[in-house]
Amino acid sequence: MNGSLFLPSEAYALERDAADGLAHFRSEFYLPQKGIYLDGNSLGVMSVRAEQAVADVMDDWKRHGIDGWTEGERPWFYQAERLAEWMAPLVGAAADEVIVSGSTTVNLHQLAATFYQPVGKRTKILADELTFPSDLYALQSQLRLRGYDPDEHLVLVKSRDGRFLDEADIISSMTEEIALIVLPTVLYRSGQLLDIPLLTAEAHKRGIPIGFDGCHSVGVIPHRFQEWDVDFAYWCSYKYLNGGPGSVAALYVNRRHLGRMPGLAGWFGSDKEKQFDLGPVFTPASTAGAYQIGTPHILSMAPLLGALPMFAEAGIEAIREKSLQLTAYLMALLEAELAGYGFVIGNPREDERRGGHVSLEHPEAARICKALKANGVIPDFRAPHVIRLAPVPLYTSFHDVWSAVRRLKQIMEERSYEQFENRRGVIA
Ligand SMILES: *Cc1c(COP(=O)(O)O)cnc(C)c1O
Question: What residues bear N6-(pyridoxal phosphate)lysine in this entry (predicted)?
Fold first, then answer.
């Protein structure tokens, strides 16, 4: 490195891009013309391959009609299983332990309906107060369906600082009253990555099944669910996996549990050989496919046929490595360039505890986000004061990170955020 390449310089950013082995993927995505997209942890951007895959599936429908279920290169009857083959390596599972199906929240319902088996004193579900609210709503309703009062039976681990969870606090809440544990892999606001193998081992020592919501990690952080013996997991495909708005989610069930009756049965969970016998009794598949309910959302899965192979080509380990470099670079620039403007970095600094985004806190966060958008930087706001910035390894460059910080600095220097109201929009 020569002397002009000090960290805050544009030349340094360009140098990092030149040395980046994943840089070539960027041209496969539709990115805003002059903008910088840092919201891939809410909705990943479209790729040329995803677009083509949708066109291909539409073409199959056009050409094959009903026979599209079994004909053509991508028979719909096997599409969920086929996508599971691409998904499984991202979470360290075998293909038959994964199925692409449902939505995140529906999959949690399915898994809670299966794995929440209250007996005797063990009637409570353990979750945490920082988790995504939809998960809590689902767990509350599962408790109500079994006749339990969620106020008493949903135990929420508290955060000491409103940002992070302490694994020791989670473990000490694993009492003999707990029948099921559901936690996020990465907290959606602060980006804290929990110690999944530790929590799983501690839950199992106490005989408690444990599952994880992987929405904020799958596609940016490798997992080894099978090796860690995680009981189940579920995640969406529209964030880091770039499947498009409402694309079909996925779930994992450890092979120890395959073959048991899913809590919510439907004909698409059938053993494929038996499904079209159309008999009155459900015969579940011997794979995670058993957890499907109705007809797969073929069109909402289609983008994944294009998007997922990119992860196999890039390699999830290389993706994680670049993600850590991007977030480390972003934090270093924020500290170098924006000291004195009242920002606090609210995500973990350590690589092994940090997810895929930087969580920047500021009392004026809502209107700073509006000013960023007006200046072509697309962030993500989480009330009351968090700006999430996700540089995504497959399409964000180091130069993007550099430009975003430069634009933010200008907004703060000129106080241009003051033209906006400090309130969130309908979607934030
Ligand atoms: C995005 C997200 C969800 C969304 O659930 P959907 O059913 O896809 O709407 C759930 N949980 C977490 C942690 C998320 O980040």
Answer: 239
Domain count for the chain: 2
The model's pTM is 0.96
Within-domain flag for 168 = yes
Evaluate: CB of 127 within 6 angstroms of ligand 1. no
Atom of ligand 1 nearest to the CA of 213: 13
Strand segments, DSSP code E, in 5-89 are 36-37
386: containing domain: 3-30+316-419
For Cα atoms 426, 427, 428, give the angle at the middle one, nearest 5 degrees. 115
Q: Whose CA is nearest to atom 2 of ligand 1?
A: 215
CB atoms within 10 A of CB 227: 10
Say which CATH number the domain at 291 has.
Answer: 3.40.640.10
The tens digit of pLDDT for each residue in 41-64 reads 999 999 999 999 999 999 999 999
Strand runs labelled E in 214-300: 232-235, 250-253
pLDDT, tens only, 243-255: 999 999 999 999 9
Name the residue of 39, 42, 105, 427 to mutate for ligand 1: max ligand atoms within 8 A of Cβ: 105
Compute the CA torsion angle 347, 240, 115, 80 (nearest 10 deg): 180
Contact 190, 293 (CB under 8 A): no
C-beta 357 within 6 A of ligand 1: no
Domain of 13, CATH number, reads 3.90.1150.10
**Looking at ligand 1, which atom is closest to the CA of residue 103?**
7
